[in-house]
Amino acid sequence: MLGLIIPAFLALYLVYLAFLHPLARYPGPRVAALTNLWKVYHVARGDYEHAILELHRKHGRIVRIGPNHVDISSGDAVKDVFLAGKSWVKSSFYNGFTALRPNIFGTTDEVIHSARKRALTPGFSMQSVVQMEPHIDACLAELISRLDRAADAGETINLKDWVAFFVIDVLGELAFARSFGMLEQGDVNAMPPLKDHLMLAMLSGQLPWLVPYVNRYLGHVPVPFVQRVLKGRGKLRQMAIDCVTARLSKPDPTRRDLLAKLIEEYERGIAKGGNNEDGTLDIADVQTEAFGFIIAGSHTTATTITFLFWHLLHNPSVFAKLEHEVLSQVPSSGEKSDGSDAAAACTPYSATTHLRYLSASITETHRMSPVFTMPLMRVVPAGGARIGSSTLLPGGTDVSVCSFALQHDPSVFGGELERFVPERWATDGEDAGARQKLLMPFGAGHRACIGRNLATAEINKVAVSLIRRYKMELVGDESVGGMPPTHSFAIADLIGPLRVKLTRR
Ligand code: HEM
Q1: Cα–Cα distance between 408 and 298 in angstroms, integer?
Q2: Which of 43, 335, 473, 500 has the smallest CB count inside 10 Å?
Q3: Which residues form a coiled coil (predicted)?
Q4: Domain enclosing residue 119, as ranges
């Protein structure tokens, strides 16, 4: 009997999802109306954002990509979902990102988020970033001396790898008070396994009810690939724990970095007799947030710099214009021509902020190749909500905006979106201003990126320092324009190397 009842219920439920559910009127792949496995499939292929873009091109503004999930590509969604205030909470998809405890990025609890944000925001102010600049410069000088060596030897380098080494070393210095030593090792195989963590987060996040079981039981699954991924995540987690313990046992009051800010908050909590319920951080929170900074801040920043150079090198006239701006407007810092002065070749952030074409080129990179490719998901508040004037969504629906799809949507961003045109942003026109408000490479609203100032400082400093020091030439790729080939687990990655030959100016 049970053998008949269960299939009958299942069949009825599938009919309900496909034809009677409140989201049934929105178009999308048939299978996506029935199961979140459509998303799992595309996440596993690394082409989730491309699949969403294709759906919008085929069906329009709103597409159903899960039984209870619609993705929207419109300026209204940016305003009504992300800029509407705290009633739109993050969806349970974000539980997939929890490796220690939910951190500021992953928490879906707005009370915890507000307290955490109050505590962490000062550490990311522009003033704090400037205080941390010596740590960035130490890594930048090392990057430059490694690139000098390659330039002098006439070697071709993979710029993507060197940028990734630089950024992870900076984050190690700032969040763990210890460099990962990647610039020194120069070995891509020694990189911390961030992508494994992101893949696991993205896959399990699509089926949030599975997350507790993944965390508890996946370790017992005897599949080598699964074991490798879990080992990678565990290694990074242990590193966070060790670094925090080491810093607490040997305090260094002279050191200004992100970990110092976290520990200040922890000590402030102890002094207040904090019990973790008033938003103060306990020791596990310090570890969790330090871990989160590495995950949220490294691959994102590195890939943005890689995409910036990819677009510049594939658009020589744009690159020439930017070189002219940089060489004519950034004063020499007195480097010697023998190259014994990598430290002096690090451009201060303050010397880059007036460069309008640089800023436009970075904005165009964020527009064309936003690295945060995962759709940003929120839950419609109880009682339902309107997006724009015409769309009414029921409370509890998962809604997302995928920046990649939105920023390639001509109805929002105008024509020729597959062309790299910084001039879009280099004017003061009303149109450019209005469109800029809809760009979401760093998210939008109260859950927007906390590390934006730090990322911007790193991107500007690397771009200007390298452009001032070297002429760059693409190797083995004569294509002009176009889009970089990518593969994504939450964050995009350039497929293959960015092979470049450097010549000292
Ligand atoms: C180019 C580099 C970066 C990009 C494109 C980027 C992008 C983003 C995006 C899109 C979000 C919003 C996610 C959402 O709504 O679900 C976010 C949040 C966040 N990012 Fe970044 N990020 C970058 C660099 C950094 C850095 C350097 C750090 C820290 C070291 C950082 C830390 C965070 C944190 C903690 C959050 C969560 C904020 C909150 O929920 O209040 N990010 N980032």
Answers
A1: 25
A2: 473
A3: none
A4: 2-504
316 Cα–ligand 1 center, Å: 31
Letter for the amino acid at 444?
A
Q: Which of 6-10, 426-430, 441-445 has the highest mean pLDDT?
A: 441-445
Averaged pLDDT of the chain? 90
The span from the CA of 1 to the CA of 461, in Å, is 70
- Cβ of 65 below 6 Å from ligand 1: no
Please, which residues bridge with residue 393 across strands?
385
Q: Whose CA is nearest to atom 26 of ligand 1?
A: 297
Instruction: Give the bridge partners for 401, in sequence order.
Output: 376
For the Cβ of 117 lying below 6 angstroms from any atom of ligand 1, the answer is yes
CA of 289, closest atom in ligand 1: 35
d(CA 318, CA 316): 5
Which residue lies with its CA nearest to atom 1 of ligand 1? Answer: 301
Residues 293-335 have pLDDT tens digits of 888 999 999 999 999 999 999 999 999 999 999 999 997 766 6
Dist. CA 344–CA 137, nearest whole Å: 9
Task: Give me ligand 1 centre to Cα 259, in Å.
Answer: 17
| 3-state SS record for 343-362 | HHHCCCHHHCCCCHHHHHHH
- Global ipTM: 0.99
Number of domains forming the structure of the chain: 1
pLDDT on residue 40 = 96
Which tokens sit at 4? Answer: 């008949």
- 338 pLDDT band (50/70/90 cuts)? low
CATH of the domain at 179: 1.10.630.10
187 CA to middle of ligand 1, Å? 26
SS3 sequence, 277-295? CCCCCCHHHHHHHHHHHHH
- The residue to mutate among 93, 135, 285, 449, having the most atoms of ligand 1 within 8 angstroms of its beta carbon, is 449
The two three-digit tokens of residue 245, written as one number: 């313990």
CA of 302 to the centre of ligand 1 (A): 13
pLDDT digits (tens, 9 = 90+) for 262-288: 888 888 888 777 666 666 788 888 888
